[in-house]
Amino acid sequence: LMLQIKEAQKDDDELWAIVQNVKDGKHTEFNVDDDGVVWFEDRLCVSSDQVLRKKVMTKAHSSLFTVHPGSTKMYRDLKQYFWWNGMKQDVATFVSKCMTCQLVKIEHQRASGLLQSLEIPMWKWDEISMDFVTGLPTTQKRHNAIWVVVDRLTKYAHFLPIQKNYSIKRTIQTLKDMLRACALEWMGNWDEYLCLVEFAYNNSWHASIKEAPFELLYGRKCRVPIYWNEVGERLIEGSELIEITNEKV
């Protein structure tokens, strides 16, 4: 995909008009590397080809590593690596037309209770929150619920498939939406994909901390396959192993 984006730049008159302005000392936030690839600061510029933009958004929204994020999460993640004019509106429109999202991400309107602020923990995993997600379809392994454990500082979450036979708030609702999307696509074996849902949640932008929980916990970003390939002067090593792993997933 990265190579397709770079090739498509060559036929985009709008981008090359920007390149000419760069040469004239304008649009200094843009630059052209030694291979003739156009960048907005350190973000790869995507051409005005609507088919290509849709392909980028599809991979950022409904791959096994992303699992239908909302428009804000998706935009915050996508803008770290790509740029095109009007991206935020395009992402919002794309998500609003996703049939899976429309089936599961209904508007939740409840009366607000009395808010009682908790002290901020001093270190990762010093304090955790736990809850359960129930009402899921029973899988072949007899799992019908998820035990959710969340680090209160970084918001990093761990999802454990369990069997629950009795009934038991932002993170839980997000997980419910993601799991319902998974259940629509994977039906009787959603528990086998739960590790990917956990990864997608932890690797996406979180409104309360303005970062992805993965980045806050480990101090570095984790790129999903849509961002693999060349990134500036850095090159992925072991690309054959990555490709084999991705196929197995």
CATH topology of the largest domain: Endonuclease III, domain 1
What's the level 1 CATH class of the largest domain? Answer: Mainly Alpha
The helix content is: 25-40%
* Total beta strand runs: 7
Q: Name the CATH architecture of the largest domain.
A: Orthogonal Bundle
Number of domains: 2
Q: Which spans have pLDDT < 50 for at least 5 consecutive residues?
A: 230-237
The largest beta-sheet arranges its strands as: 1-2-3-4
Tell me the fraction of residues in β-strands, as a range: 5-15%
Shape estimate: globular
- Report, as a whole number of angstroms, the end-to-end distance: 18 Å
User: Helix- and strand-based class?
Assistant: alpha+beta
Report the average pLDDT across residues.
80
Count of helical segments? 10
Descriptive account of the structure:
The protein is α+β, with helices and mostly antiparallel strands. It has 2 domains: 2-103, Endonuclease III, domain 1, CATH 1.10.340.70; 128-220, Ribonuclease H-like superfamily/Ribonuclease H (Nucleotidyltransferase, domain 5). 39% of the residues lie in helices and 12% in strands. It is globular, with a radius of gyration of 20 Å.
Summarize the structure.
This is Retrotransposon protein, putative, Ty3-gypsy subclass. By secondary structure, the protein is of the alpha+beta class. The chain has 10 helices and 7 strands.
Layout of helices and strands:
Blueprint: H1 2-9, H2 13-23, E1 30-32, E2 38-40, E3 43-45, H3 50-62, H4 71-78, E4 82-83, H5 87-96, H6 99-104, E5 128-133, E6 145-151, E7 157-162, H7 170-186, H8 194-202, H9 213-218, H10 239-248
Parallel strand pairs: 3-4
Antiparallel strand pairs: 1-2, 2-3, 5-6, 6-7
Helix pairs in contact: 4-5
